[in-house]
Every structure is written in C-alpha cells, then in structure tokens.
Queue: 4 jobs
Job 1
Amino acid sequence: MYRDKVVQRSEYEWEIAPFGKMRVPAIFYATPDLIKGMDDKVFEQAVNVATLPGIVKASYAMPDAHWGYGFPIGGVAAFDAREGGVVSAGGVGFDISCGVRTLHTGLDVATVMANAHALAETLYRTIPAGLGSTGAISLNHHQMDEMLRGGARWAVEQGFGREADLSRIEEHGCMVGAKPEEVSPQAKKRQRDEMGTLGSGNHYLEVQQVTAIHDEAAAHVFGLKTGDVVVSIHCGSRGLGHQIGTDFLREMVIAAAQHGIELPDRELACAPLNSPLGQSYLGAMRAGINCALANRQILTHLTRQVFAKVFPGTTLDLLYDVSHNTCKEEVHEIDGKKRHLFVHRKGATRAFGPGHADLPDVFKPIGQPVIIGGSMGTASYILVGTAEGEARSFSSACHGAGRAMSRHAATHQWRGTKVVEELAHRGILIRSPSMRGVAEEAPGAYKDVSAVVRAADIAGLARIVARLEPMVCIKG
C-alpha cells in the first residue's frame, strides 16, 4: 500500500505526498537499489510519523532506514513546541545517545599488525562486553546523579580522560537540561555497575586502518591519511537508557489519548513538548545522553591504558564523538525564518555543515565529522557535514549500514564460530563472549554500507572523507 505511493523526485530523493492524516510528506534519501531493498514497514512508519502534531517540513528516512520501534531506524523528524509539537520516546529509541567516537592511535598498520593478537587479547580482557556485562566501577546514588548531570565532563573530573577530549564531543561532553530526578530508581539500579561497558548487539570497539581518502581537505583537518590506524567505539546508555524508554513509553500511551492525540501505532506514543510529561521525558532523556557520553569516555580511558601497555608512548587523541539516538532542541531555518525545533534522530547522525556555531573552531571551516559504523567485517566511513544538509534533513545523515535481516534470521544462516574463522582468514581478529551474538551481527546481515554512504554523499547529506577497514573487533 505505502510502497505504491512512493514517487522518485530526483536521483536520490523519493517522496510519499501527504494523504489521509499526514501533515507533511515523507521523504526518503536513497538510491533505487536501496529503496527497493527497504522493508515495507519503513514506508508505513515514515508515513505514521508524518501524522504527529507539530511536525515541521517532512518525515525523513536516511539511506540506511529499516523497520524500528514506532519510528523507522534512520528516521528524522522535527517538532515545534509552539505548534503543539510532541516528543516521542519511540522517536529516540531505547539505547539513548548510542553513538560512535573515533580516536587517533598515531600508529601505522605494520606496527599494529605485528602485535595484533596481543592487542586483541588485552582489549578483550580489559573492555567488559556482552549482555548484562558489568565493569569495575560501581556508582552510589550521589555518584549516579552526578554522572547523569555531568556526562563526559564528570568522567574526566573522575580521572577518565583529558580535558581536551571535551571539545571533540557533541554538546562538549555534557548535555544541559538533564534531570536525574526524572530517571526511575530501576533505571539507575540497572546502570549502577554498567559504566565502562560495551553491552551487546551491534556495539563494538574496533581497531581500524584508513584505506582510502576521498576528500583531502577534510581529511587534513580531521588528521587522517592512508595507512593510519584509528580506534572506534560504538555503544550507548546501556540498561539505563533502555529503562527510560520503557518507563516513558508506558506513560506516553496514556498521555497521548488524554491530549487528544490519535496514534496510528501505539509504538508512536508521545506527549506534547510543553506538557509535564514531555518535560519530564526530556529531562530523563538528557540524563540518558550524559550516561552514554560518560560511558564512552570511560571506555576511551580503558582503551588508552591498553594501547599504552601494548604500544608504549601512544596517547590516542580523540577525533570526534557523535550520537545517533537523541532528541535535541536546535535552531533551523524554515522558509527563511529561524525556528527552535526539537529534532528526533533515531539511528541518524547529526551532520552540521561548515560554520555552525556548535562546532569546535578547528571544524568550523570544513564541517562536522560524521562517523558511520560498519558491521564487523565491512568498512566504516568518516564523512563531513554539508551546508546542503541543513535544508534537506535538518543537518542529519545515516548512522550505519542498516540491517538487511533480523537477528533471528541471521542465526539461522550463520554460525558465530564460522564467522570468526572466515574473518580471521581475512586478517580481522574478532573477540566476543557470545558466538550467537557474532552470528546475529554477521556482516551479511547488514546492507552494503558503501552503498549507504554513497547515497548520503550523492544526496548532499554528508560528504565521504575516509574509508576505514577493520583489523581487530571486540564485539558485545
């Protein structure tokens, strides 16, 4: 039904014009092959998002879009509080502020390969990974609240990293407006022993080599060249973020009806931004963002310790840290006027273009680094935000390859031990506590990440800067 309504507007842009209760169009950025490969539910969910009160301009889907909870993963939507706009826990996702940070190692490929097995084993022993994994840090009630207020800044103050890291993190490492008091005791309990852990699913710590440079000017600013070795860390807010999503979705289903909001899908549960529940969720979600930023900061500290042990003298400077499951208040230009909007990015990455005030001075001439994770045995990419992206997607881009099949289906097609063996033959070392988890995350279970980033590049959402290939991967 919904696929039949998709009309191609350009080489990279597709649209479902408003019909029924849609307030705005649904716009999809993809190549013909990627559109063909999207599951039908993506189109239905993008249309459903377009019916929500206060939505501005369009409901967007990025090139990696696939079926999610309420919103498609890869979905972007902005809402105006002054026009009755809403905030949706499903539009943020359960892993609040899941994101990726990339670190320079200062090492070359030959040096790392000569010690790859020692590096893999030491990282695996040091970085807690897997379902329910816990770390050496245990937070009491006061420490938990301080972490939820302070984010990566709190982590640095506790000795996990350097002050210089903070300028290379979204929100400078600390999301303002966090309200730990809006986070349930159960959410805090789940997180108490999970700081500095990767978790499970598609989360990873990966040592990567730069194999190609596509934009020399941006690569120079980012400090990247062919043959460099970097480390990328992909994880989020762990049990705390999941519990926040669970807690508020339950309340939002009830609140939507009370506010006269007709939901085409219960998973789109939401609350008006200006309502007490909407404000409560924003405070809790911002605390979840800080949890994720602190978590990645602690993991960075642990990673630096490992590299200093295996490769004495290394420092691992931070390139950038960017999230892809958030709702943030931002200023965007609509029809020539600047408006304060609440931009939901679910499985979509912020991609500010050149000159944006929120960027570190070093990136303002070129734009924001956009880090796109691969899938264990495939490439990852670093892109840069564009000026065009502001008008096309509220300065948003894709966040990864996007799943091509469910985790359940993947376990029927691959065995984890076989995946590990095959990748080892290609020179990629995998360490994971769960072979089932490896099977679920088999590279073949994902779309072609190179096709996804090419589509983002062609669409003008972000420009390809560098291609990264995996060398060592610690999987949850």
Job 2
Amino acid sequence: MRLDTEQKKALISAVAGSIIAHTDELTTLDQAIGDGDHGYNMKRGFEAVLTDAEMLSAKPLPDFLKAIGMKLVSTVGGASGPLYGTLFMALGKELPAEPSREEAVSAFGAAILAVKTRGKSDVGQKTMLDVLVPTHETMAQGAGAVAIKTTAARAASATVPMRATRGRASFLGERSIGHMDPGARSSSLMIAALCDLFGES
C-alpha cells in the first residue's frame, strides 16, 4: 500500500471533515458524562491538521502520521490530545513507508497498545479502546471495509450500557450508564471516514 501526496491530503480531509461535521454531537455526548469539550477540542485539533495539510502530506507515510500525532497533542485539549496523538505517532513509528495489509494490521495493534499504556486503560472501561480493539480484531480476520466500519459503529453503540471506570466519566459511577462514550464515537467516525475513502466492500 502506497499513499501519494494527494491520497494523504484526501485522508486528512476525510477524517478531519467527519470530526468537524460531528462537533455538536461529540460535544453533546461529552456534556452527558464528561467535561463537555470533546467535540470542540477535537474540532480545534483537526482544523489545525487541515491548515497544515499541504506540508504534512508531502512527508513519507511514517513521518506524516507522526506529525499529525504531534499536532493533535499540541492542539487538542484534555485527555484526547495525548491519546489520539499517541495513536497516530505510534502508527507512524511502526509503519514502513509502503506497508502491506499485514504490516498495517500489526502497526495498528502496536498503536492500540501504546494508547492502553498512555491512558492506563483497557477494553470494557468505556473509552476509545472499546472501538479500537474490536476494529483491530476485525481487520486481523481479513475483513473488508464494510465489516470494519460496521464493527466500529456497533462497538461505539456498545459503550452505552457500560459503566465508565476510567476518565472523567468514571466519577459519575452508575450515572455514566446509558450514554455513548464520546471518545468511542470519535474513533468510530475516523474509522468510518477511512473505510469510505480507501475501502472496498
């Protein structure tokens, strides 16, 4: 798999566009169980990435991803900046310039592990990991884009009945039940955007 400059620009546009378009939804989700700023924090970060799309897209894939991660760390507030920044930077560290599907799946797994370590969290705690991990498992099974996108969406919905045990939402205890995790939702939006852009059914 080789991404040229235009494809990397398209990747930025697709992912950033999806997050920005869902700012209000992400904010509403976070108002229910968090600080209420997830949507606007993510919007600010991806607007910064969009602004630098020309410069970022000229970099080789590993450096491209690392630079996006660094941009998110420096512009997205709260816990989301370090966590999403870690995800992208770890992907950049693990991926070769022209990865095979197997190498992409392996790198995604390593990046998820880095997020787990950074957030001191794991699956079942009502976080973005509840989308990233099942998505990775589906990818590892060789599934196509439709199945991967469906897995991510269902996984985000599956956080609704969970009780949060990590992050701001954990302070609510039982009151965190009944709400979708905003980080899970933003993760599913990114995955859907990538599947729509590059995937085949």
Job 3
Amino acid sequence: MPAFGDPDAWLAIVGLAPGKHGANRTGRPFTGDFAGELLYSTLLKFGLAEGEYRADPADGLRLKGAIILNAVKCLPPQNKTLPSEETNCRPFLMEAIAGLPHLTTFIALGKVAHDSLCRSFGVPLSRAKFAHGTEHRLPDGKRLIDSYHCSRYNQNTRRLDAAMFEAVFERALALIDG
C-alpha cells in the first residue's frame, strides 16, 4: 500500500495496515472503510486536507502538510498483524519517512503503529508507553503523539470519539505553531 499525501508533509499519520474493505480494496489508505470517515473529516476540519471525501480514490481529496503511512504494508490475516510482518515492513516505513524532509511530527494510530515507530527509532517501549494523547520525543527531535486507532470497534465501544481524536490533531498543530 503506497503512502497517500503531501510529499512536503510536516505531519505523518501512521496507521496499522491496509483495511480489507478500505485501502486493500480501493488502493488509498482509510478509503472506503468506517475509520476513514473520522480520519478524513478531522483532516478536513483542521485544514490538513482539501476537497471532499467520498470514500473513493477518484474523489479529488488532497492532503496538505500531512501524509498517511502504514506500519505494515499488506493486509494482515484477521486484521491482526504478526510480529514478523511488523519487523519485515519496518524498513519500508523508515524508507518512506526518510523521503519526507519536512517531517516533524507523527501521530500513531494505535499501539502497533506506536510500537513500530518506537522500534524504528530505537526507543525502548518501556520508556515510551502507548496511551491516547501521550507525547514522546524521538532521538532525532521529532515528536510522536499517540491516538487510539479510529477503527469502527474503537468508535462503537466509545474508546474513541470525535472530540478525543480531534484533540490529538489540535495538539499536533499547536506544536508547529509554538
């Protein structure tokens, strides 16, 4: 699954892996699945996207200052990644990150994305525990902000609501302004 977004992005949103009914089917991250509704409405609200999201890669939606990457590049069985898949895909994630010269901030959507980023940057997980809204400094100075994944499950169980999700993006925007 290729990255989607602005090659001059300051913000990288890192998801788990392509969704079976979303990105794996449509070819664009978070497009055509429930999680994309919240993600793209939030990006539009905060000026990180322009156009209209219609759950179709031909909808003309563009990201501004942001890019979406996945910790794992392929659709995992039962939507659960294996440690070997995470390890095997980490070089692809780091290659994508290396190609983003203006990147300053990550938002990790879920613990798998958080752990993959920490491992990629050599940060022990014991020193960077995942928790929604928590911020971490990476060794190269970039910031990592954790968010629960915007999955249907997390939204339906009320682990994550729009206000909580938007607060993470508000914080990321405050970091570039402050």
Job 4
Amino acid sequence: MLVIVGLCFKVGAAPFHFWTPDVYEGAPTLITAFMSTVVKTAGFAAFLRLFDACFASIADFWMPVLLVITIVTLFIGNITALYQQSFKRMLAFSSISHAGYMMFAIVALGTASANSVFVYATAYSIASIIAFAVLILIQQQSGSDNFDSFNGLGRSNPFLALVLTIAMLSLAGIPLTAGFVGKFFMFSAALSRYQFWLVIIAVINAIVSIFYYFRVIVAMYFRNTDRVEVATPAYYGFVLALSALITIIIGVWPAFISNLI
C-alpha cells in the first residue's frame, strides 16, 4: 500500500495529486513540459515494472485499491479542468486525468500492458510537447496563459493554430490521432479483463474532456482579437511540424508505434 501511495504521488494520481497543479503552474513552462512528459512516463514505467515483476501474484489484494484510485483520478482531473481559466493549469489537471488512463495498464495487468503504456505515453507526450511549445510562444507575445490569449490565433498564425488543434484533438482522443490509438489500447486491455464499468466511466470522462480541450480551438478560430502576429522561430516550427506529423501518422497507422516494442 505504501508503494502504491509513493508511485501515485510520483505520477500525480488522485488523491495524491495536490502538488501537481501548483508546481506545473509555478514552474517555467519548459520545465513543466519536461515534468508532464518524461517524468510522468518514467514514473509509469517504474509503476508497471514493479507491479508486473513483484506484485502480480497478490493482484487480488491491491487491484481493488488501484481501481478506486483510477476512477477518482479520472473524475478529479477532468471535472477540475473544466473550470480552469489558465491554459497551463488546465494542462496540469489534464495530466492528472491522463495518469488515470495510463493506470488502466496496471489495473488490467497482462502481457499487453507494457505496449499499452508505451503507445499511450508516446501519444500523450507528443501532444503535450506541442501544447507547451505553443504556450511558450503565446506567453512571450501576450505575457499571459489565459484562454483569452489564444483568441484569433487561427488568423494571426494559422500554423500554430493548426498544430495546437491537432494536439488538442489527440489529447481528447479523437479518431485519426495518436491519442485515440492510445485510449483504444488502454480500453482494450481493460475489456480483456472484463472491467466493463471502468471502461464506461473512462468513456464518460473522455467526453467531458472534449469540452475543455475544444475551448482552445473555439478561442483560436471563433473569437476575434487585435493581436499582432505571433512569430514562430525555425526550430520551434520544425519540432511542432514533426510532432503534429507523428501524431497523425500514429493515428492513421497504429502499427507504426505498436510494433516498436
């Protein structure tokens, strides 16, 4: 139980998530991007390896506890993200909900768990890199990370708006993006262990997440502003274009990523 508490604190799972929003918001955006991708992925790699190698034989003991933590994490992450006014803080609560999805691999522990975590973590990390990179550029231009800072971005910088739209669609799990493939792997693993109610709860939470991810898209394309054009440095453009391309490729051709492990 103490190992579960420590690992859940590490990956930002509820009810041990209390540090995540404040640290993500207070840290420099580049550091926040590192924490929400590399650190979280490493935490789940340790989580999976420890429970698969050491605790699989006593799964009946810890499985109910982890199941409750997974459900609580999904609801707290998604519902709290709904009423955030800061894009960065919304991404922090979003990362909590994605921790809940990745915990499916632990709850449905099996031979496919490692592959599911790898695919989901890759999809989530790539979309997060896009989101935080665009946020850095917006903050440099407007000095704010509120949703209003993205108003009219579709007109002032169509490229940034396009790649951020792809990232938001992927995080929401919309088909033809890597995020959809990641959720499909996680849901399939849970269904293979007859966790039907867990999948239903996760689908409901995925629907809820669409509302706050689409707030950004609505702001970029359907709200006007007098913003000046946001410049995109060449190295930012390369990373953003490559990340968006990989997100689409994985969404259209899942074998591209699933066969790597």
